[in-house]
Amino acid sequence: MIKLFYVFILLQFVQLSAQGTINKTCEDSADPTKTIVAGGSVAEIIYFLNLDSYLVAADVTSIYPKQVTELPSIGYVRNLSIEGLLSMHPTLVIGEDDMGPPNVLSQLEVVNVDVRIIPEERTIAGIVDKIDCVAKVLGAESFAKRQINKKLKSQISSLSKFKKINSNSGKKGMLILSMRGTSPVVAGAETSGDGFIALTGIENIYSSVDGWKPVTIESIIQQNPDYIFIPQRDVHQNSDIVSLKKNILLQKTSAIKNDNIITDDAMAMLGFSPRTILSALNAAKKISNQK
């Protein structure tokens, strides 16, 4: 038993050491012509930069735009396999900050595959920085600046304006990731859902909770949100919204009374990609009651 314990500790140490060696810089990649992407937001940015011709494979969270789903799949962003990755003969593997596991990424570097983890900050500036970082790695920094000015600059300006208006409104909201019986899973602090709510300028009623957590209906009634955000996935369609509106207890909340349920594509809301800016802008406009 003691021996197994020491083996476990050793494995943990090796994994932590491996994580520390992964390249998190935004310097140019020597050869991005055979790129594997792991993470929906990074895939979206690559298409935003018109560099999808570099892609040879993508993970299952890369679903936008639709063309990316036609690429060979290398599995889930957090559970990649060395065999699947190497079978695509990549020159670069680029992904979100939760790409892993660490030991697989370190094995890629051992065989001289360039591995890049793109840093993420869940703010407007963080989205722009993420685009800039991907662009630098892929050698398209100048084009990225033009794309940002052309497609995002106006949206960013408007979002900043509505965010400021809403931050002085005293309004509060919550984001429900999924309905789990009588305990919805909500966005607490340090989640993409909390970051999205912050983009709109209002307070997250569960900012004192860490991570994604199930909460009781009674808790929601007590907190009484003015707005409820629901990321939508194809498999969910409108089922979560119907469940919310039919709940007799939740009908007591300001959000349900005033039909203040805000929905959008889950990756658009939570991916912190170029689309997240427009998604947050649409939500912020609704909250401010301005078109």
Topology (elements, then pairings):
Blueprint: H1 2-21, E1 35-38, H2 40-48, E2 55-58, H3 82-86, E3 92-95, H4 102-110, E4 114-117, H5 124-137, H6 141-167, E5 172-178, E6 185-187, H7 192-200, E7 203-204, E8 212-214, H8 217-223, E9 227-232, H9 239-246, H10 254-257, E10 261-265, H11 266-270, H12 274-288
Parallel strand pairs: 1-2, 1-3, 3-4, 5-7, 5-9, 9-10
Antiparallel strand pairs: 5-6, 6-8
Order of helices and strands: HEHEHEHEHHEEHEEHEHHEHH
Helical percentage: 40-55%
Structural class: alpha/beta
Tally of distinct domains? 2
Shape: globular
Quaternary arrangement of the chains shown? Answer: single chain
Query: What's the story with the biggest beta sheet?
Result: 6 strands, mixed
Spans of at least 5 consecutive residues whose pLDDT stays below 50 are 1-20
Specify the number of helices. 12
Could you tell me how far the N terminus lies from the C terminus, measured between alpha carbons in angstroms?
A: 65 Å
Q: Any guess at the CATH architecture of the largest domain?
A: 3-Layer(aba) Sandwich
Number of extended strands: 10
Query: Mean pLDDT, nearest integer?
Result: 90
State the CATH topology of the largest domain: Rossmann fold
- What is the CATH domain class of the largest domain? Alpha Beta
* CATH superfamily caption of the largest domain: Nitrogenase molybdenum iron protein domain
Strand content: 5-15%
Query: What Rg is obtained from the alpha carbons, in whole angstroms?
Result: 21 Å
